[in-house]
Specification:
The structure holds 2 protein chains of 2 kinds. Chain A has no helices and 11 strands. Chain A has strands spanning about 5, 10-15, 20-25, 30-40, 40-50, 55, 65, 75-80, 85-95, 105, 110. In chain A, β4 and β5 (about 40-50) form a beta hairpin. Chain B has strands at about 5, 10-15, 20-25, 30-40, 45-50, 55-60, 60-65, 70-75, 85-90, 105, 110-114. The interface between A and B is medium-sized, with 28 and 27 residues.
């Protein structure tokens, strides 16, 4: 049971480059989320998705793009990376049922030079 | 002012101590309260989940919610070195299974020393 996985786990890129972070879950959860975690800010929501082809912006969505063509995948793209996007990125998922909360992946550490 | 405030620590306690971790919040619509534990270089994992006011106990962990004071707490009894982690409080207005978004505190770093 793989759960929720993220790739790559570590990434170094340069300012202006496009970067895609991958997220894959094996639970068939309807909802998926992308967060970034920064010192002093905690976890902040970037984007979320209620189902395939349904996405919506979170608190800090500028400079990010998402897609969700399949229920199990939710890639996050930085269209033109900036140094301020250096962060740890977490993907999470949750089901529609009852009191399920969000389950988090292991994170991707991104450094933008 | 942040919607959820949490003392970042670090908090260092001896093994066996009782630990108290706290969060305050400003949004009176929050109904669901969670504590996540995050080990270094790992993703957060759910520790406790509470609806509305009251207490909930799970082994050495007790979560308390006081909605009148907009204050939540996590108590850890007989703390162990394996409890050393960052503890994040999180809150939502509705069931996260319905897609209601979580609002997180910044996390408190806890170290339990031998």
């Amino acid at each position: 049971d793989a759960g929720i996985t993220q790739s790559p786990r570590y990434k170094i890129t340069e300012t202006g480059r496009q970067v895609t972070l991958m997220c894959h879950q094996t639970w068939s959860h309807s909802y998926m989320f992308w967060y970034r975690q920064d010192l002093g800010h905690g976890l902040r929501l970037i984007y979320y998705s209620a189902a395939a082809d349904i996405t919506d912006k979170g608190e800090v969505s500028d400079g990010y793009v998402v897609s969700r063509s399949k229920t199990e995948n939710f890639p996050l793209t930085l269209e033109s990376a900036t140094r301020s996007q250096t962060s740890v990125y977490f993907c999470a998922s949750s089901s529609l049922a009852g009191r399920e909360t969000q389950y988090f992946g292991p994170g991707t550490r991104l450094l933008v030079l | 002012q942040k919607e959820v405030e949490q003392d970042p620590g670090p908090l260092s306690v001896p093994e066996g101590a009782i630990v108290s971790l706290n969060c305050t919040y400003s949004n009176s619509a929050f109904q669901y309260f969670m504590w996540y534990r995050q080990y270094s270089r790992k993703g957060p994992e759910l520790l406790m989940y509470t609806y509305s006011s009251g207490n909930k106990e799970d082994g050495r962990f007790t979560a308390q919610v006081d909605k009148s004071s907009k204050y939540i707490s996590l108590f850890i009894r007989d703390s162990q070195p394996s409890d050393s982690a960052t503890y994040l409080c999180a809150m939502s207005e509705g069931l996260t299974g319905g897609g209601n978004k979580l609002t997180f505190g910044t996390g408190t770093q806890l170290k339990v020393e031998l």
